[in-house]
Amino acid sequence: MKRREFLLGSGAAAGALGLGGLGLAAGAQELVIQPASFALRDQVTRGMVSLSPDAPPPVLYGKQGEAMRLPVRNTLPDYTAMHWHGLRIPNGMDGVPYLTQMPLGQGETFHYEFTPPDAGTYWYHPHCMTMDQMAHGLTGVMVIAEAEDPGFDSEQVINLRDFRLDDAGAFLPDYTQRGAARAGTFGNVHTANWLQAPVYDHGAGGLVRLRVLNSDTTRIYRVNLDSSNARIIAWDGHPVDVEVPLPSAKEPLLLGPGQRVDFAVKMPEGEGQTVNLMVKLPGQPLRVMAGLRAVGASVARDLQELKPLPANPIARPDLKGAELHEFVFGWTPEGGEPNNGFCGSLGYNFWSINRKPWPGDAATDVGPLATLELGKSYILRLRNESPNLHPIHLHGLAFVPLKSNIRTLPRLMTDTMLLLKDEVVEIALVADNPGDWAFHCHVIEHQKTGLTGFIRVV
Ligand code: C2O
Ligand code: CU
Ligand code: CU
User: Fold this and answer.
1) Mean pLDDT of all residues in 80-99
2) Most buried pick, 37, 78, 151, 295, via CB within 10 A?
3) Ligand nearest, relative to CA of residue 415
């Protein structure tokens, strides 16, 4: 099998292969996918994957409306491809193997280059050897700054995720067959920025923008802050324009894999006082995942001083003229085994979209789940036919939830919709970004055992 034989879609070949001539722009820092060792607990864990020597993947910073050049070089013997989750960028830069580009072999570099249209909290992770490389650490935050400074005193990024380690600090298998067929296989070491309950110093009395990402392969985090002097200002990257209640210990926020939440936090006035990001894990007391500690003399800011973040330039769907498409997420009746086109297979099919399991990364003759006309509005009805929760993610487009059969959904722009047990949610979007856009569950074991497809916009 040759890698180049499996490219799906028509526009993809030109987009991916035409990039060789772009070259490395001056000042663009090469991102090198490399092995790493790190003390996630007391012992050093080997066999991790990062972009930094023996440190977590860095936060990547960009600015809304300004070009970013991100040359990614693969030094691993396994194939890879890098995806920029939530960014509405050209399809050829989306990092999905066979759909938008060829997998990157050892020693190869892909020159990602795009201009983020939206400000907010996004993230990056591989989309080839996804299970293995993500489980071993390759997940990082991307911060796209607003064109105009929104007026915080400081910022804190928190990347929440688990690792699955044995008592000696070595990796356990990334997944189990049992887990993949149910809610997924859970990690046992719970980290923020690869650390256990790190504490970060911020000016007393100041306003901190706290950006929280769930980059776990499986876990839906239940989060809250132990302070009520805070506000949710963005959800999955985009500014919220409706009142969203602050989560509490009693009513925590469900943050599914792939999702982000931004808080504006007022730091305590007294030096040494803290605000903590808390998480509720099943069968455990509330746990501090990360702390913000007040330092210095108070700068006496007030949350009221913050102007709302400017809205991102996302087209609002026209619901009257919108065409409806249905998607059913559930088990797969016939099972079978996905193929392995250099991007890793778990060896099983358990899940499906519209009752068809995705045949594997390098699948040939697989069509889109739906073809949408460029510029038109659509309603997508997402039906969860299973008892398990699924964070359903669509690449390249932002969408807004309209309604659910079991709860009221605030109309918050997003790229990832967490479907609850037996839930049916309608979402709406304008199909304004052409290309083949991956559409899958972000529980990686579900994604890699059939719960994947793509939507074509032409
Ligand atoms: Cu965050 Cu298809 O991915
Ligand atoms: Cu994505
Ligand atoms: Cu799922």
Assistant:
1) 98
2) 78
3) 2
Return d(Cα 372, Cα 50) in angstroms, integer: 36
Segment 101-124, tens digit of pLDDT: 999 999 999 999 999 999 999 999
> How far, in Å, from the CA of 393 to the mean position of ligand 3?
10
What percentage of the chain reaches a pLDDT higher than 70? Answer: 94
DSSP string, 304-354: GGPPPPPPP--PPP-STTPEEEEEEEEE-SS----B-SSS---S---EEET
Superfamily of domain 3-145: Cupredoxins -  blue copper proteins (2.60.40.420)
What pLDDT was estimated at residue 3?
42
- Per-residue model confidence (pLDDT) at position 69: 97
Determine the distance separating the centroid of ligand 3 and the alpha carbon of 275, expressed in angstroms.
32
Say if 154-305 and 323-457 have the same CATH topology: yes
- Can you point out the beta strands (E) in 179-229? 189-192, 199-203, 207-214, 221-225
Q: Which ligand is nearest to the CA of 444?
A: 3
Supply the pLDDT for residue 27: 53
- SS (HEC) of 203-217: ECCCEEEEEEEECCC
Give yes or no for residue 164 CB within 6 A of ligand 1.
no
Residue identifier of the C-alpha nearest atom 1 of ligand 1: 85
pLDDT of 338 reads 87
> Domain locations in the chain?
3-145, 154-305, 323-457
Q: Which ligand is nearest to the CA of 124?
A: 1
What distance in angstroms lies between residue 425's CA and the mean position of ligand 3's atoms?
A: 15
Whether residue 301 has its Cβ less than 6 Å from ligand 1: no
Binning pLDDT at 50, 70 and 90, where does residue 341 land? confident
Confidence of residue 258 (pLDDT cuts 50, 70, 90): very high
C-beta 453 within 6 A of ligand 1: no
> For ligand 1, is residue 260 a contact (CB within 6 Å)?
no
Ligand 1 atom showing the smallest separation from residue 127 Cα: 2
- Measuring CA to CA, which residue among 337, 344, 369, 345 is closest to residue 355? 369
Atom of ligand 1 nearest to the CA of 125: 1
Q: Which CATH superfamily hosts domain 323-457?
A: Cupredoxins -  blue copper proteins (2.60.40.420)
Q: Which CATH superfamily is domain 154-305 in?
A: Cupredoxins -  blue copper proteins (2.60.40.420)
Q: What pLDDT, on the 0 to 100 scale, is given for residue 335?
A: 77
Residue 75 clears pLDDT 80, i.e. is over it = yes
Residue owning the nearest CA to atom 3 of ligand 1: 85
Q: What integer best gives the mean pLDDT of the chain?
A: 93
